[in-house]
Predict the structure.
Amino acid sequence: MRIERTNKISAMKILLLFTMILVSCPAMAQNELQQLLQAAEKANPGMKAGRKLKEAKQWEYRTGLTPSDPEVEFGFMPGNTDALGNKKVFSATQSLDFPSVYHYRNKLADNQSEKAELDYRDFRQQLLLETQLTYYELVYQRKRDRYLTDRVQNTVKLHESLNRKMERGEATILEVNKARIQRIELENQLTLIKANERQLVAKLTWLCGDSLPALNQFSYREEILPGKDSLFCDIIRLRPDLLSAKAGKSIAEEARKLAGAKGLPKLMVGYESETVPGEKYGGPKVGISIPLWSNRNNVKRAKAQQEWAAAQYTGQLKQAWFELERAYSQVKSLRKSVENYRTGLEEMSSVQLLNKSLQLGQISIINYVTEMNYYIGAYENFLSAEHDYYRALAVLMRYQL
């Protein structure tokens, strides 16, 4: 009784440990991907250049918001005779736009700076998405690597076993050649997969600015697919490219208001003095500039640009909804395809069962190779569908990056 109870306790411990491993694996995979994305954001040379470009644009937009520089003039004009003496002229003036011009100019600069930030966020999102998709491609190739490595080892053993049987007269040359051809095909596929893995690791290293973290899990990140309407609201609220288009619309509106304000008179204030022998004149001076012709078509141009920006934003929203419907339907179809493949593979005869049937002589080597190729093809299709599903899901949910 004590032994039976001890066995039950041990079994429960093993089951608990196995459950903890299953629960922790997705979290570890998500943590691995998160570390990869953080490394790309921190060390990628394109990200560094993008941040500097954003800062340069924001400083550019904050330039020229103050009034123009004051002007100071001094003139010295000697007379043509000593009796006339010398004449001195001094003036200092400051030109000022109408106050509303500065108000709209500052609001325009604020919107332009915001758009520069959103453009940088869009670039950042695209780079992180490329990093995530590259990692997913590596996960796909690594899963194929693991599976085909087992199949190659099994095929090598089969080929060597058939060679020994042929020497004893228990197998034909046709069966040996069939096993040899399958071995060559699987080894060639595995060689190509390993080459793809090396290329993907090199690309990830470049994306992470030579700061690639250690990769051990090689698993897709699980994400919950929300409802379509809720997802579209989140996309409008969070996707940088749509927010940038919306900011462009606001910029066009402020530019139209600024163009209208520039049609108001400009002011000029200053001081001027004139000195001649025995006399001196000085006092304030005020002037006004009425833009009768210089601002003639600016308002029309700004209004046309505002209408274009509004139409472009509306078009991008419609395009985003169309892309969402297509991508959402594709993700759901791929998810169902993955589930069907997984169920079908579980119901199919396993590789171990095929090996056992061959060893017992229940099937011929030709039937074995045919069944094995069919199973490998089905499993390859499953891995491909799984990769396509997580890739499409990542593209659909990229606004969360």
Summary: The radius of gyration is 37 Å. Residues 1-26 have pLDDT under 50 and may be disordered. The beta strands are 71-78, 86-96, 266-276, 279-289. The chain is about 70% helix and 10% strand.
